[in-house]
Each structure stands twice: as structure tokens, then as C-alpha cells.
């Protein structure tokens, strides 16, 4: 099915008109509005989110993609000004995957009164892992996500599982604040060699990109340990051993956590867990994660000293 090029809107008024026009055309009862929130510089990971959004919305539903580099989620010294931007290229890509509307506002449209005085707090989810290394980051994410949900009024919002802590924070915000939006996580899309797709991969030199593969190798090593029936300490040790041997990779954290709370799992944990890593390669900070199924540690095993935010 050929899909027309998406309408690009920049203001609240233009967005409201695009949303109202669709609602007035009489969508089928099963049709929904699906939104994918991005910061642009789109790659196939983003496009997979939009493909899934098209499925969720229905053939004549409405798919809205937001492109906004949100200043609230960047800390001092981070890459706000240098963050890659290519709106024309992004719109061309979105035309091939079924997007109907691209909302690409400027900061003064999203924050007409300047930096907002009232913001959303991520609570304890925002105090560990990414929150420890990027204070206020998840507060900025949730604040803009809530605003964009209000502006786009979706039935369903789709987020990548690569940003696992962000996905959890969004789900908790939706539940805790009684938002009538279904949140759908979409699996991480990887390059052929295992590197998780990210807009920041564009910063990596050829040598740095090779070094960055240590992250996915470490996660695969941890998963292999879990699949072999080893306990949580062994899972983390398998991953950290690979990272410790990777010169040029500076680890912010490696943690094995409860996927529902991002709290560190105990030594006797049995069941699903998430192995999370954040590291710098050169000047580029990358994150990745892997779901694992952990068995309890053998009887008499020592206490697992894994803690959220512990460095490898």
C-alpha cells in the first residue's frame, strides 16, 4: 500500500488542525492514533517504531511522529548543540514507513514560557543508573513526553526497548498519573555486527565503532551465563569481564536489575532480569541492555555485591 508523504507541522495550531482533520474523516472504530516521539536523526530503529505504530493504528488510523531535540534532558556539557539534526532527511525516511503527520516544533513552541517551572519528577527511578550519571535527565524526558502526549492525544505511544530505564519511567508516569495511553515497547534494532542502533553512533570513528562492540559482546556474555543456568553474580561477572578487557571503553555502569523497578537483583534472584550497560567510547556515550532469565545462585554461593550504578 502506497502511503502519501507525511504532513509536516511546526506549530500547535497546525498540529491541532492535522489531528482534527483526521478525526472528522470518520475513522473506523478500530482505528487509533499512534505516536512515536523522537529527537530526529532517524535510523532504522526509529523506523521500526513507526512501522509498529502503523500496525497499532490500523490501515486508516493516524500515525504521528514528533521530532524535537528536548533541551530539558541534556545536562551541562552534553551534546545539545551538536546533536545531529536532519529534518528533510527524516521526513523522506518517514514517507516510506506510513507516517501521517510529523510534528517538528521549536523549543519556544513546546515551552512557550521558557523553561517550565513545573516539571515531572521520575522519583526514585530517576535517581539510579542514568539518573545517577545524568542528574535530571529522566525528569526532562518525562516532562516533554507528558507535554507531547497532551498535544498529540494518542491512543498508543511507542518507545524503543533500548532505552529501558526511560521506557519503565514512562510506563510508571502513565500509570501513576492516570493517562489514558497504551505504552508499547519495541525491541532494540541492531546492526549486523550487534551494535545497537543509535543516532549517536554517527559520532563514532571507524576505530571507535569497533571498540563500541564491546557493549553488545558483554551483554551477550551475560546472557550466555544466564542461559547456562548460572546465578546473578556470575551473569554480571561474565559481562564485566568482557568490558574490563576492552581498552578505550570507559564504563559508567553495568547493572543487573529488576525490569519492573530497576533495583539491583539479589544474589538469590530467580527469573527475569535486565542487564544494563552505559559506557563512553571516545567522547560518545552509549547505552544498551539485554533481557536475561536468571536462576538462583547455588547453595553456599557468596553474596552478590552487584548494585545499581556500580562501575565495572
TrEMBL record:
Intracellular or extracellular location(s): Cytoplasm
Keyword Nucleotide-binding among UniProt keywords: yes
Catalytic class of the enzyme: ligase
Residues bound to (R)-pantoate: 73, 166
Classification via CDD domains: PanC
GO molecular function annotation: ligase activity
Its biological purpose: Catalyzes the condensation of pantoate with beta-alanine in an ATP-dependent reaction via a pantoyl-adenylate intermediate.
The protein, known as: Pantothenate synthetase
Organism, as annotated: Isoptericola luteus
Amino acid at each position: 500500500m502506497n502511503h502519501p508523504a507525511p504532513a509536516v507541522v511546526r506549530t500547535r495550531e497546525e498540529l491541532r488542525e492535522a489531528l482534527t482533520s483526521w478525526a472528522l474523516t470518520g475513522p473506523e472504530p478500530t482505528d487509533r492514533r499512534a505516536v512515536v516521539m523522537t529527537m530526529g536523526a532517524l535510523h532504522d530503529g526509529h523506523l521500526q517504531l513507526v512501522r509498529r505504530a502503523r500496525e497499532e493504528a490500523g490501515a486508516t488510523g493516524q500515525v504521528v511522529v514528533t521530532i524535537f531535540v528536548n533541551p530539558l534532558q541534556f545536562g551541562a556539557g552534553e551534546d545539545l548543540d551538536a546533536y545531529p539534526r536532519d529534518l528533510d532527511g527524516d521526513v523522506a525516511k518517514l514517507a516510506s514507513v506510513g507516517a501521517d503527520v510529523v510534528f517538528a516544533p521549536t523549543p519556544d513552541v513546546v515551552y512557550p514560557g521558557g523553561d517550565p517551572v513545573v516539571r515531572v519528577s521520575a522519583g526514585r527511578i530517576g535517581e539510579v543508573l542514568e539518573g545517577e550519571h545524568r542528574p535530571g535527565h529522566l525528569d526532562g524526558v518525562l516532562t516533554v513526553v507528558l507535554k507531547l502526549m497532551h498535544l498529540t492525544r494518542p491512543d498508543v505511544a511507542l518507545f524503543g526497548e533500548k532505552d529501558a530505564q526511560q521506557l519503565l519511567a514512562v510506563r510508571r508516569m502513565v500509570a501513576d498519573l492516570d493517562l489514558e495511553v497504551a505504552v508499547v515497547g519495541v525491541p532494540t534494532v541492531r546492526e549486523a555486527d550487534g551494535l545497537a542502533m543509535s543516532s549517536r553512533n554517527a559520532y563514532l570513528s571507524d576505530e571507535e565503532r569497533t571498540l563500541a562492540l564491546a557493549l553488545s559482546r558483554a551483554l551477550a556474555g551475560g546472557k550466555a551465563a544466564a542461559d547456562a543456568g548460572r546465578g546473578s553474580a556470575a551473569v554480571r561477572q561474565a559481562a564485566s569481564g568482557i568490558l574490563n578487557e576492552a581498552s578505550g571503553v570507559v564504563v559508567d555502569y553495568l547493572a543487573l536489575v529488576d525490569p519492573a523497578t530497576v533495583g539491583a537483583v539479589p544474589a538469590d534472584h530467580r527469573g527475569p532480569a535486565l542487564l544494563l550497560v552505559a559506557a563512553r567510547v571516545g567522547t560518545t556515550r552509549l547505552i544498551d541492555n539485554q533481557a536475561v532469565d536468571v536462576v538462583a545462585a547455588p547453595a553456599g554461593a557468596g553474596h552478590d555485591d552487584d548494585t545499581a550504578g556500580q562501575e565495572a
